[in-house]
Specification:
Strand order of the largest sheet of chain C: 6-7-8-3-9-10
Strand content of chain C: 25-35%
CATH topology of chain B: MetI-like fold
Membrane topology (chain B): Multi-pass membrane protein
GO cellular component, one term (chain B): plasma membrane
Number of strands of chain C: 10
Number of helices of chain B: 13
Pfam families (chain B): BPD_transp_1
CATH superfamily of the largest domain in chain C: P-loop containing nucleotide triphosphate hydrolases
CATH superfamily of chain B: MetI-like
Function (chain B): Part of the ABC transporter complex (TC 3.A.1.6.1) involved in sulfate/thiosulfate import.
Shape of chain C: globular
Radius of gyration of chain C: 18 Å
Largest sheet of chain B: none
Largest interface: A-B, 105 and 101 residues
Distance between the termini of chain B: 29 Å
Largest sheet of chain C: 6 strands, mixed
CATH architecture of the largest domain in chain C: 3-Layer(aba) Sandwich
Structural class of chain B: mainly alpha
Order of helices and strands of chain B: HHHHHHHHHHHHH
Distance between the termini of chain C: 33 Å
Number of strands of chain B: 0
Structural class of chain C: alpha/beta
Family (chain B): Belongs to the binding-protein-dependent transport system permease family. CysTW subfamily.
Oligomer: heterotrimer
Helix content of chain C: 25-40%
Chains: A mainly alpha (287), B mainly alpha (279), C alpha/beta (239)
CATH class of the largest domain in chain C: Alpha Beta
Order of helices and strands of chain C: EEEHEEHEHHHEHEHEEHH
CATH topology of the largest domain in chain C: Rossmann fold
């Protein structure tokens, strides 16, 4: 018993010192191996031939076309998803109707569908060997292996992002502030813009950030529907694949580094939001 | 939609337009494409579909995708719990950095992760060279696929368990201690059961994501038919051969697996809500 | 303005929140809807405000049918149970909200809005808090700001849902007096919901006792004390 009396008192709700050190060590090692090492590799490989190599890679016409393509896709897909997310969250969080749970399940569905299968679906729907695709061809409307198909594929894989962030926040905030605005004579739109939107703006930004990161980085679905035509439909991720398979390592990793910087920026902004505006994000986002 | 039976009346405006926009976009972006895949399956017919799936190459691809996803998700179940526990309960230098970095697999494009892991673990990469003397090869073997899927699935378990650990009531742990339980006993008998629903949900989410993963895997897998060829890659190959029926057959098989997992996730959540009252 | 309810009923799904109830509230009265939780008093108040829609029955304001009148057009000053102040707006912006929400032709100038908000903040005896945000206020201050915000729209009636429910006993007493004074100065028909019989008896001219979606008794506090109409009223008001 004497050693118990002599030892420093340890709070009952924590583990012994040694166990704590081991667990922290394990967590740090795990993070180093699986998170930081791959990230560091991207930048190291991009700069394998120095800054000149990376800059030369970025000035390749194929790389520049891919960057433009990726930016254009995000510029269309992200706002569309934001509109969808707001509309869906408004209907789901502020009203009671039948089939609500089923609607939420459908919105979440794209999360559990393989991106390649998503791309396949679009090829089957709009491709030349479906009757609808043949009709489109006859009218000279190109969707698959063209820009609209890539946007649709991106919309599919990013579909739940904004809605998922907004629905829990709007349910938690309830309807009373909107009701108060209405009793004060505000119209529906005015209520939305002056009361609802300010209350959800940080959650909206959070969802848009994640949506944008995924939209710019989507590979599987886009690879299937784009046809990966250089200078035409190749996006940054698909161009990375082509460079990598042609052993143009520096070019591949330089484009990858650009996307990795976007990912880091996303994480930084996301963490800032979690620290500064935790009360206005969904409960699961507050660390 | 307007019928009073289907929707409770509300003074808030805008149900019609917002519901309409949501449903229209859902239909065009999600439901119509899924319908196209299932419709193609109906046109092909069940016997033909089965014939196209029931080949050695397709089976081994589907089995590989599922097996690797299962192994990686089990690994993440254990290490995700450790990581979440450490991030919530302990204070140490670099904690916030690691906490933020946990979401890296969400933010980093899969193709970027794929080539980075390949460069690290390829026989001439730094980790690959370090492991070679022990006779361990990661890249271009099934272990490489596990590795990529561990990376992809890492945030799911951490991010579903973390908030539950934060909400744990210290009274319960103190009560357990006053009843004479040692710390390990408290962790195993009191804390772990409380975390089980969140752990299962995180595991199922990671599994669902990993089964269909493509971008991070194809670079490191080596893609040898029958050995390291995952199911999504086989779909891409069939499409490149202009064999869209065979691609659709594999796609339907994968979609059914996805649906099954979605049902499992929902069942876990209903069960846990009933049992513990947590979502 | 007087308020008349004719056979008003409300069902939520299969549940009856209000059995058909009828009630006449004379112009300028200060009325308490008194009852335990689940008695239908809040539902009744929200129907008056246009926030809830009756399954059947009619609501009349000064004799005119108001059942289908939109919440915006009712001009009912409503004080929510937890006040529902807009968190991202200052007290000034909160109080000015209803005036700024008016159509351009009816909207006062910014200078006029400023004057009115100042006057209202004086009325609630908090002249210096215009620049603060709701989370910088005490519970009692929030309640008074919510009252000022409701009064800013020059309402036709004042409706309050458990206006003192979230406050401690001392503040409660003060604010009761405050509400009485505001009612007497403005002369507005005022209806408030409460589960506290002492509060209802002390403050209201007319008390409506409710239970299980029905009106048990309507009368002056003294009448209800002296002659409870039902066993429920007797036990509930004796508490």
């Amino acid at each position: 018993m004497s050693d118990i009396v002599l030892s420093r008192p340890v709070p009952v709700t924590t583990e012994p010192q040694l166990a704590r050190a081991l667990l922290v060590g394990l967590a740090v090692l795990f993070a180093a191996l699986f998170l930081f090492a791959p990230l560091a590799t991207v930048f190291a490989e991009a700069l394998a031939e120095g800054w000149q190599g990376a800059i030369a890679a970025l000035s390749l016409p194929d790389a520049q076309a891919a960057i433009r393509m990726t930016l254009s896709i995000a510029a269309i897909a992200v706002p569309l998803n934001a509109v969808f997310g707001i509309a869906a969250a408004w209907a789901i969080a502020k009203f009671d109707f039948r089939g609500k749970a089923f609607l939420i399940t459908l919105i979440d569905l794209p999360f559990s569908v393989s991106p390649v299968v998503a791309g396949l679906m679009l090829v089957l729907l709009f491709g030349a060997n479906s009757s609808f695709g043949a009709w489109l061809m006859a009218h000279d409307i190109r969707i698959v292996f063209a820009f609209p198909g890539i946007v649709l594929a991106t919309l599919f894989v990013t579909f739940p992002f904004v809605a998922r962030e907004l629905i829990p926040v709007m349910i938690e905030q309830g309807r009373t502030e909107e009701e108060a605005a209405l009793t004060l004579g505000a119209s529906g739109w005015r209520t939305f813009f002056t009361v609802t939107l300010p209350n959800i703006r940080w959650a909206l930004l959070y969802g848009v950030l994640l949506c944008n990161a995924r939209a710019m980085g989507e590979f599987g679905a886009v690879a299937v529907v784009s046809g990966k035509i250089r200078g035409e439909t190749a996006t940054m991720p698909t161009m990375i694949e082509m460079f990598f398979n042609e052993y143009l390592s520096v070019a591949a990793f330089t484009l990858a580094a650009v996307l990795a910087m976007l990912a880091l920026l996303t994480l930084l902004l996301k963490s800032l939001l979690e620290w500064r505006h935790a009360d206005l994000l969904a409960a699961t986002r507050r660390h | 939609m307007k019928a009073p039976l289907l929707r409770a009346p509300s003074p808030l405006p805008g149900f019609g337009p917002s519901f309409g926009i949501a449903l229209a976009m859902l239909s065009v972006v999600v439901l119509l494409p899924i319908g196209a895949l299932l419709g193609r399956g109906l046109m092909i017919g069940p016997a033909e579909l089965w014939g196209m799936v029931n080949t050695r190459r397709v089976w081994s691809a589907l089995a590989l995708s599922f097996r690797a996803a299962l192994i990686a998700s089990l690994f993440n179940l254990v290490f995700g719990l450790v990581l979440a526990w450490v991030l919530v309960r302990y204070r140490f230098w670099g904690r916030r950095l690691i906490d933020a970095a946990v979401d890296l697999p969400f933010a980093l494009p899969t193709a970027v992760a794929g080539i980075a892991l390949t460069a690290l673990y390829a026989p001439n990469g730094p980790f690959g060279q370090a492991l070679a003397p022990f006779g361990l090869r990661i890249a271009y073997t099934e272990a490489g696929i596990w590795l990529a899927l561990v990376f992809i699935g890492l945030p799911f378990v951490v991010r579903t368990v973390q908030p539950v650990i934060e909400e744990l009531d210290p009274d319960i742990e103190e009560a357990s201690a006053t009843l004479g339980a040692r710390r390990f006993h408290t962790l195993r008998r009191v804390i772990l059961p409380t975390l089980t629903p969140a752990l299962l949900t995180g595991f199922a989410l990671a599994l669902a994501r990993s089964v269909g993963e493509y971008g991070s895997v194809i670079f490191i897998a080596g893609n040898i038919p029958g050995l390291t060829e995952i199911a999504p890659l086989l779909i891409v190959i069939r499409l490149e051969e202009y064999n869209s029926d065979a691609a659709a057959a594999i796609g339907i098989a994968m979609l059914l697996i996805s649906f099954a997992m979605l049902l499992a996730i929902n069942a876990i959540q209903i069960w846990s809500r009933r049992r513990i009252g947590l979502v | 303005m007087n308020i008349e309810l004719e056979e008003l009923a409300k069902e939520f799904g299969t549940e009856r929140a209000l059995h058909p109830v009828s009630l006449f509230i004379p112009s300028g009265a200060l009325v308490a809807l008194l009852g335990p939780s689940g008695s239908g008093k809040t539902t009744l108040l929200r129907i008056l405000a246009g926030l809830e829609f009756p399954t059947s029955g009619r609501v009349r304001f000064d004799g005119g049918d108001a059942t289908g009148l939109s919440v915006q057009d009712r001009r009912a000053g409503f004080v929510f149970q937890h006040y529902a102040l807009f968190r991202h707006m200052t007290v000034f912006e909160n109080v000015a909200y209803g005036l700024r929400a008016r159509r351009r032709t009816e909207r006062p100038t910014e200078a006029e809005i400023g004057r009115r908000v100042t006057r209202l903040l004086d009325l609630i005896q908090l002249p210096d808090i215009g620049a603060r945000y709701p989370n910088q206020l005490s519970g009692g201050q929030r309640q008074r700001v919510a009252l000022a915000r409701a009064l800013a729209i020059e309402p036709r009636m004042l409706l309050l849902d458990e206006p003192f429910g979230a406050l401690d006993a001392k503040v409660r007493k003060e604010l009761r007096q405050g509400l009485r004074e505001i009612h007497d100065t403005t002369g507005l028909t005022t209806v408030f919901v409460t589960h506290d019989q002492e509060e209802a008896m002390e403050l209201a001219d007319l008390v409506v006792v409710m239970s299980m979606g029905r009106i048990e008794q309507v009368g002056k506090p003294a009448e209800i004390r002296a002659k409870p109409a039902t066993e429920f009223v007797r036990t509930f008001t004796a508490a």
